[in-house]
Amino acid sequence: MIQFFKRFTVFSIILTITLFTLQIIVSNIIDNKSINGQDNLDQTTGKKSEVLFFGSSRILASINPKILLDARVKSENLGSSGQGIRFAIARYRNYLAKNHKSPKIIVCSMEPLFESGDSRFEKDRFARYCWNANPNDTPILNYFKFNWCERNIPLYALLKYRKIWDCIFLNNRSSWLKEGMEIPSSNSLCATSPKRFDFNTIKYNLNQIETQIQIFKNLAETNSAKLIFIQLPFYRYPIDSPNNQFELTEHICKKFKIDLINLHRDSLNQDCSIFCDQYHLNKKGSDIVTNLVINQLETYLQSAQRF
Amino acid sequence: MLFNSFEFLLFFPLVFILHWFVFNNGKSSQNLFLIIASYFFYSCWDWRFSFLLGFSTILDYYSGLVISNSNDLKTKRNWMRLSIFINLGILCYFKYTNFFIDSFIHLFNSIGFHCDPFTLNIIIPIGISFYTFHGISYVLDNYYGRIKATTNLVEYSLFVSFFPLLVAGPIERATHLLPQLSRKRKFSYVQSIEGCRLILWGMFKKVVIADSLSPIVEDIFTNYQNHNGITLIIGVISFAFQVYGDFSGYTDIARGISKLLGIELILNFNFPYFSRSIPEFWSRWHISLSSWLNDYVFTPLALKFRHHEKYGIFIAIFITFLISGFWHGAGLHFIAWGGYYGLLYIPYIFSKKGIKSIVSKKSDPLKASDLPKIILTFSLVCLGYVFFRSPELSHSFRFLDHLISDCSLSQKVAYKSFLIYPLLILLADLIRFKSNFLDSIPVYILIVLMILHHSTNQSNFIYFKF
Questions:
Q1: Using CA atoms, how far apart are residues A147 and A143, in angstroms rounded to an integer?
Q2: N or C: which end of chain B has fewer CB within 10 A?
Q3: Residue B440: left (phi > 0), alpha (psi -120 to 50), or beta?
Q4: Phi and psi at residue A224, in whole multiples of 5°?
């Protein structure tokens, strides 16, 4: 029995040392680097942005911070694929914890596609933060419900979510700008016939959304920031959507007295040349939309101190 | 509670420690503790079915006692029949009721009587096929005088409910397991180290091989119309290794856990994909079920039909495989799968060697010249898997039709990179069989890392549903 436990202990110790060593090596490789563009919690420290953009992949593919910078607006696109308003709040809190000062303007996507929150899509993108987590990143880890093992066993989260090779080779970063935007595809939707989107599949829980909006609004106001919502184009709406889900956003904004940048216009929705798929803009579309956003933001920025 | 779950990672070390350090006074305390652990393990799925397990245990225990102690042949026969009838009745109710209702409705509708389709909301108790077969084998062994019934309910109860084999086998025999339970178990270093190795290899087969192949098999079998013939062949080969990795992985873990508790379970797989003939395949694949069916179905049937000589053997084999198919699941595709193997035995039965060709040659060493036979046998096994994996019989035929009509070597193949997994498992099997090269600490650390790397998709073992 003693011999068995000795052997078992030796194996466990060697295994633990191996895991620790590999984790330390990987942690050093990825320190202060983003491995997939959206895991940019470390890159948002010490920024003095004027505008932050939150939302899902639709925001991520639509707003180009470089164009905003050309217009002398320093911004960051913190959209994250598949995430809803609860993640936007968690991400904003993370930004505040790391910068101690809020930007003047917070722009957040608001639309029927934007869920109220229990979405755990793409949590693998944030698995790299699990081990030895910075206390400021804990709310993000809590949001994704990473378990005890994932947070405390070295290398486990990276292995489990299959991020180890991305971390070692850093080969999945090429399409990401420093400011967090995904460089959109230059493909056009005109040559294809996209599937009809079934809006009935969306679990749009209005009560939950409204609760989160109130939390977000209060948080922004506490930090002297203005919260603005944005609604982006969606290909061929309203042809594919029998109900008026997108009109609901205006109603919500009026109810909470939040300004809305509504780019959900027929002129954009019907233009196949600006979409790379039904939900996401292509390069041309993102340039158009970013310039429209700049025009709209001008009014708000005039009252704020410029850098 | 799955073997590859976090809960089991807490459960088993606790059982191990309590078994060897707290309840180590004698065989009774060891057995009693393992029964409590086993019922707790079983209750984690659905506690209500632990009563069914208890009922089945008491029924077979008492039947065994009556059969063994009685001198009256009629009494023995009646009790044997009663026990089997109740056991099979319970199995049929839970597993086959909806199948029979559905089949009768189809039959009535096809002859012109209109019946509205309906099914009963019946949950199948996990592992029922396995523990029912445990009980039946015990009663039959008593009836045929192969064993003397145990008078110790605790030992018998543990024989039926021992948690490593409770839900997916291997199907143990009283002659093998009961003697181990009737003496105090002593800790063995060699046995425990081998147990740990088996657990790691089993996890590797399940998590790395089977679970990695699972999504591509699912996609290819579900959307077979969207794939070409070569991709469908890859799908079938992938399923062959998925089911092997899954089931033999489970068995390895079960055997490893048992070894750590001082109990040896029978070997269930013996390099089945290196078989040179279909009979050899069945002597290497799911050995515990094959031998069970051989002893309790084929042999009595062969004796019954012995006057028909080779035709009698064929009928006995065919019926045995139909039962084997039906045991696997309530569906015509499972019966077709069994029938397919029955038909594959025809060339062996009616060859010049006759019945001798069916006798296992697994002890013969493999030679390079055996390769064509191995490939042919594997191809036939894969063809059978089309029926096994399909959700229904018509799907199997549509799948095969599409495979044959849309198959060309020039086609672009999806998922070909996934063939690395079958190669990996074959290589591991071969190397492990030939040498101790893989039994070193760095290799096991690599295996642990690979298991962690593939632990995202935790899925049920395929044989749990049987």
A1: 11
A2: N
A3: beta
A4: 55, 35
Whether A225 maps to a domain, the answer reads yes
Q: ipTM strictly over 0.90?
A: no
For an interface test with A, give the residue of B452, B455, B456, B458 to mutate (most A CBs within 10 A).
B452
Q: Which two tokens mark B278? A: 């279909």
Q: Rounded distance, CA B20 to CA A206, Å? A: 57
Give how many domains chain A has, as a whole number.
1
Contact call for residues A115 and A203 (beta carbons, < 8 A): yes
The domain in which residue B15 lies consists of: 6-186
Task: Count interface pairs A-B at CB distance under 8 A.
Answer: 37
Domain tally for chain B?
2
Nearest alpha-carbon partner for B62 in B28, B88, B86, B95: B86
Centroid of chain to Cα A19: 30
- Please confirm whether the linkage preceding B117 is cis (ω < 30° from 0): no
Task: Calculate helix-pair angle for B49-69, B153-161, nearest 10 degrees.
Answer: 130
**Dist. CA B274–CA B238, nearest whole Å:** 16
What is the Cα Rg of chain B in Å?
A: 23
Identify all chain B residues contacting A161, using CB atoms and an 8 Å cutoff: 456
Mutation for testing the A interface, residue in B445, B447, B458 having most A CBs under 10 Å: B445
Listed in sequence order, the residues at least 6 apart from B461 whose beta carbon sits closer than 8 Å to its beta carbon are B2, B3, B167, B168, B206, B246, B247, B249, B250
Task: Looking at the structure, tell me whether residues B101 and B201 fall in a common domain.
Answer: no
Q: Of B118, B151, B186, which one is at a domain's C-terminal end? A: B186
Q: Catalytic amino acids of B?
A: 328
Q: Count of alpha carbons within 13 Å of B79, Cβ hemisphere only?
A: 25
Containing structural domain, residue A106: 35-115+179-302
Query: Residue for token digits 């065994």?
Result: B64
**Cis geometry, peptide bond prior to residue B164 (ω within 30 degrees of 0):** no
- Residues B145 and B259 occupy one common structural domain: no
Q: pLDDT by residue for chain B (466 residues), tens digit each?
A: 777 777 888 899 999 999 999 988 888 899 999 999 999 999 887 888 889 889 999 999 999 999 988 888 899 999 999 999 999 998 888 888 877 777 777 777 777 777 766 666 667 787 888 889 889 999 999 998 888 888 899 999 999 999 998 877 788 888 889 999 998 999 999 899 989 988 988 888 888 888 888 888 888 998 888 888 888 888 999 999 999 998 999 999 999 999 999 999 998 998 899 888 898 999 899 999 999 999 999 988 988 888 887 888 889 999 999 999 988 887 889 999 999 999 988 888 887 666 665 655 556 777 888 889 999 999 999 999 999 999 888 899 999 988 888 777 776 776 766 778 888 887 777 766 665 655 677 888 888 888 888 777 666 666 666 5
A226-231/A105-109 β-pairing: parallel
For chain A, list residues whose CB is within 8 angstroms of any CB belonging to chain B. 1, 3-4, 7-8, 10-11, 14-15, 18, 147, 149, 155-156, 159-162, 164
Distances in Å between the Cα of A64 and the Cα atoms of A44, A79, A84, A292, B353 are: 16, 11, 20, 11, 78
Closest by Cβ to A14, choosing from B187, B196, B441: B441
Q: Are residues B151 and B222 in the same domain?
A: no
B112 and B165 inside one domain: yes
